[in-house]
């Protein structure tokens, strides 16, 4: 359900404090941590609002009411909206609950794309991503200030994944890729990750075989970075310390622990390729803007030389990025590495 976004930019620009001030008189005193979701006043949004309220009340205290925002752009008419107030000191839980319900409103059409189309760069981005601001404006009960490297902890079973993005460096990426990375903070469908056990790191066990010619390098710059990162031990794990070091010391590193996913209806022969229809998910260790203009998709493997299936995992990361962004596989280069070796390949060379 799309609406005229320019009418709502006013609400976003006004800021949470202004919206809370306007709605304060309508909020019950019992609501201590109001998260507000504003929808446009229309028949469709009224129906959607009722569905959201019914869903949200299973987890949170919820109060909804009509709200008028001040006129904008010199106009005389106020902006009418429906406001859903959700009481919670954990705004990301609220945002996730809203996204999970809205996910059901997406229109899924039968795809014309096949795995062969994706491998040969003939696919298009046919899947509309869910964007909260296509439905309304969300004002969390508290807001964190973003630093040069923005960090967000995703609760993706079986654990938490700390997604880190060097905000200013995304200008080096193609616009679809940069937009995807920025949208993840608000729009990542976390319920998909919690609702599946099918992960890129385990696909080989399901019988998928991917033939990819690998090139082993002993002098790639990423090897030296990995070796230098050993002295960076401020965080809890080797992986996380390496990722943080790359972001701090390597200007080509754009993001770490990047969430990616694809659903079974996104290309025709998904079930044939994977032997199942579960949603596939993963988290990319390191994403870089490579000197040749490609996007580097990298996975850190502590014993890279002993790996037999790492290329399948990294290939699937690139495949999911291609689906999420609409970019061709030729826009990516892939590899896995440790402190001694790097194994690189082009995802377009994959044969299933």
Question: What do these coordinates show?
Answer:
The structure is a single chain. With 352 residues, the chain is α+β, with helices and mostly antiparallel strands. The protein folds into 2 domains: 1-143, Alpha-Beta Plaits (2-Layer Sandwich); 144-349, no CATH class. 31% of the residues lie in helices and 23% in strands. The chain has 11 helices and 12 strands. The strands form 2 sheets. It has an 8-stranded mixed β-sheet with strand order 5-6-8-9-10-11-12-7, sandwiched between helices. Strands 2-3-1-4 form a 4-stranded antiparallel β-sheet, with helices on both faces. Helix 3 packs across helix 4 (91-103).
Features:
352 residues; alpha+beta; Alpha-Beta Plaits; eight-stranded mixed sheet; four-stranded antiparallel sheet; 23% strand
Show the helix and strand layout.
Layout: H1 5-14, H2 16-23, E1 34-40, H3 43-56, E2 62-69, E3 79-87, H4 91-103, H5 115-119, E4 137-139, E5 149-156, E6 159-166, H6 175-187, H7 190-194, E7 215-217, H8 221-228, H9 238-249, E8 253-262, H10 270-274, E9 280-289, E10 295-300, H11 310-325, E11 332-337, E12 342-345
Parallel strand pairs: 10-11
Antiparallel strand pairs: 1-3, 1-4, 2-3, 5-6, 6-8, 7-12, 8-9, 9-10, 11-12
Helix pairs in contact: 3-4
């Amino acid at each position: 359900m799309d609406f005229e976004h320019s009418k709502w930019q006013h609400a976003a620009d006004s800021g949470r404090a202004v919206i809370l001030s306007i709605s304060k008189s309508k909020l019950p005193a019992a609501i201590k941590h109001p998260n507000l979701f504003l929808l446009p006043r229309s028949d469709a949004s009224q129906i959607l609002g009722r569905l959201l309220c019914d869903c949200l009340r299973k987890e949170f205290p919820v109060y909804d009411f009509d709200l008028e925002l001040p006129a904008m752009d010199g106009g005389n008419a106020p902006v009418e909206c429906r406001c859903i107030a959700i009481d919670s000191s954990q705004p990301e839980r609220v945002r996730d609950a809203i996204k999970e319900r809205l996910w059901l409103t997406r229109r899924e059409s039968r795809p014309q794309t096949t795995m062969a189309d994706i491998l040969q760069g003939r696919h298009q981005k046919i899947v509309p991503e869910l964007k909260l601001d296509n439905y309304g404006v969300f004002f969390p009960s508290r807001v964190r200030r973003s630093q040069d490297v923005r960090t967000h902890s995703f609760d993706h079973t079986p654990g938490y994944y700390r997604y880190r993005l060097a905000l200013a460096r995304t200008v080096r990426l193609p616009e679809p890729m940069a937009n995807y990375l920025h949208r993840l903070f608000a729009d990542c469908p976390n319920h998909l990750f919690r609702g599946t056990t099918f992960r890129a790191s385990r696909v080989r066990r399901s019988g998928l075989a991917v033939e990819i010619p690998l090139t082993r390098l002993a002098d790639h710059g990423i090897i030296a970075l990995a070796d230098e990162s050993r002295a960076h031990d401020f965080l809890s794990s080797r992986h996380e310390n390496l990722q943080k070091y790359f972001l701090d010391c390597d200007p080509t590193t754009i993001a770490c622990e990047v969430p990616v996913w694809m659903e079974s209806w996104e290309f025709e022969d998904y079930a044939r390729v994977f032997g199942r229809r579960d949603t596939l998910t993963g988290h990319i260790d390191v994403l870089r803007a490579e000197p040749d203009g490609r996007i580097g998709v990298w996975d850190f493997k502590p014993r890279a030389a002993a790996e037999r299936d790492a290329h399948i995992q990294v290939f699937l990361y690139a495949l999911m990025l291609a689906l999420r962004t609409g970019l061709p596989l030729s826009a990516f280069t892939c590899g896995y590495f440790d402190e001694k070796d790097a194994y690189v390949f082009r995802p377009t060379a994959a044969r299933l």
